[in-house]
Amino acid sequence: MVWMAGCKFDFIPQFGGHVPLHDANMETTVEGIYVAGDVTGVEEASSAMEEGNMAGVCAAEALGYLTKEEASKKKEEIRGRLNTLRSGVFGEGRRKNKEKQIADMEAYVSQQGKETPEHV
How many domains does the chain contain in total? Predict the structure, then answer.
């Protein structure tokens, strides 16, 4: 469905192949479409849940249900938990792949002449 919505994809074999480009807020190349979980790259269940939390907080902020300050606090907490899950012997590879995915999104946005969303 993400592909059908027109979202741009990246190829990261370690994440299971084609994965949608997304920013740190889990927003794809199509404004207003957020992704989380295995579609963003196969990791493990706890990371998927935290990505879902991030996508939900960012969507709520974009829709005006959370203030920038409320969302920033929640996002900081979620990023801390994700960083913990993506550390150590088993998590380091997942962290590097996720960093590549987000960097590729930034490069795509830059090529399109757009600015990175303000709420990142």
Answer: 1
